[in-house]
Amino acid sequence: MTDNWNLLGHEWAVNMLRQHVANRTMRHAYLFTGPPGLGRRTLALAFAQALNCTQPPQAGEACGTCRDCKQIAAMQHPDLTIVQAEKEGGILRVDQIRELRRGVMLSPYQAQYRVALLLRFQEANPNAANALLKTLEEAPKQVILLLTADNAEQLLPTIVSRCEVLRLRALPIERVEAHLRERGTEAAQARLLAHLSGGRPGYALRLLDDNSALDFRNKKMDDVQNLIAASRVTRFAYAEKLAKDKDVFRQVLLLWLSFWRDVMLRAAGEENTIANVDRADKIEALAAHLSLSEARRLVVALEEGLTQLKRNVNARLLAEALLLDWPFM
User: Fold this and answer.
1) What is the CA radius of gyration of the chain?
2) Which member of 9, 110, 135, 248 has the greatest number of CB atoms within 10 A?
3) Is pLDDT at 30 greater than 70 in this prediction?
4) Domain check: are 40 and 66 in the same one?
C-alpha cells in the first residue's frame, strides 16, 4: 500500500485508523458516513487489511500482497462478512443481522479479527437496526464492525453513539479532475466527470469505467431538456413509461435532482459550483426564467419524491405530479 492506503483523499481518516491499528486501540465499531462514491467502502476494506495483514511493512500498514490482504480486497475472506440490502435503495432485513450475529460469535477462522462490513446501513429496517444494537453491545473483542451510511442522522442515535464516527467529505473538484487526468483521461472528459461526481472520486471512476452509466446519464439529461419543451400529453406518456421500473425511476430522480439543483444554484447567483457543466447553457436559461424560490421548490419536490418512492407510493402519479410542476419553455 501507499502512504495513504491507496486512497485519494481522506488523509486524516487514514492517519487516525493507522494509529488505532499500530497502537492496538481499535474501537469495536466504526461508522463511515458521506455520500455514495466517496470511498467509504474502500476505506473500510483498507482498514480491514491493516487489521489482518500477516506481513505488515510497518505498524498500522498492510502489504496488499499477502493472502489475507488479497482476499479482503476481493471481499472473499473467510473472516470478512458483507451485509447489505439486495440492491441499492432496497431494504436490509433483520434476518441478515441475525445471521451476522451467529457468525461473529465464532472465533476467527483464519485472521486475527473477524470484520463485519455493513454497507448502506441507512437501508436497514427498524427491526434490523435494533438487532444490530444488540450485536454491538455483545460482540466479542476479536470482532470489528464497520458500517457505512450517507449520514449518521439516518441511524438510531444509540447505534451512532456506540461507533467511532468518521464523517468523510467530498474532495475539491480540481483534485478529482487532476487524478483523472493522471490516469490518462482526456482533459474535457476529466473536467466533466469531476464535476458530475461532486468531488466523489469513486463515482467519477465508475462513470469513467462504465460507459453504460454515462450513456444513461446523458440520455436522461437529454430527456430533461426535451420534457421542458414538451406538452402535458407528452409528459404524461413519459411518466407512465418511467413508472414501470422503480429502480430506474429512482436513478432518474437522482439525475433530475442534480440538474435542478444546478438551476437553483445559478438562480442564487452561484457561478462555479454546478455539476452538469455540459448542460450549462440550458441551466443558465432556466435560472434566468425562474426565481430562486421557484427553483428551490422544484428541488424540494424531487427530494420528497425520492422519499415517497421508498414508501411504495403510486409511482406513476408521483412521476406525473413532478413533471407537471416543471416549467414549460
Assistant:
1) 22
2) 9
3) yes
4) yes
Asked if 133 and 264 sit in the same domain, the reply is: no
> Distance between CA atoms of 329 and 69, rounded to whole angstroms?
56
Count of all residues that appear for the chain in the document = 329
Q: Specify whether 195 is located in the same domain as 305.
A: no
Same domain, yes or no: 195 and 272: no
What is the per-residue pLDDT across 278-317, written as a single tens digit (0 to 9) for each? 999 999 999 999 999 999 999 999 999 998 988 878 999 9
From 34, 35, 60, select the one nearest 47 (Cα to Cα).
Answer: 60
pLDDT attached to residue 87: 87
Q: What integer is the mean pLDDT of 173-194?
A: 94
Q: Which of 147, 167, 187 is the C-terminal boundary of a domain?
A: 167
Same domain, 112 and 205: no
Residue 302 included in any domain: yes
The single-letter code of the amino acid at 65 is T
Q: Are residues 101 and 160 in the same domain?
A: yes
- Total count of domains within the chain: 3
Q: Is the pLDDT of residue 110 over 80?
A: yes
AA identity, residue 95: D
Q: What is the DSSP letter of 37?
A: T
> Locate cell 444488540: which residue?
134
Q: How confident is the model at residue 1 (pLDDT cuts 50, 70, 90)?
A: low
- Among positive and negative, which fits the CA dihedral 215, 38, 311, 256? negative
Q: How far apart are CA 51 and CA 5, in angstroms?
A: 13
15-54: string of b/e by CB count within 10 Å (b at 16+)? eebbebbeeeebebbbbbbbbbbbbbbbbbbbbbbbbbbe
For residues 210 and 198, what is the distance between their CA atoms, to the nearest angstrom? Answer: 18
Q: Is pLDDT above 80 for 234?
A: yes
Residue 296, domain extent:
211-324
Co-location of 219 and 279 in the same domain: yes
Amino acid making up residue 36: P
Looking up cell 429496517, which residue turns up? 125
Instruction: Label residue 178 exposed, middle or buried (CB < 10 Å: 0-12, 13-18, 19+).
Output: middle
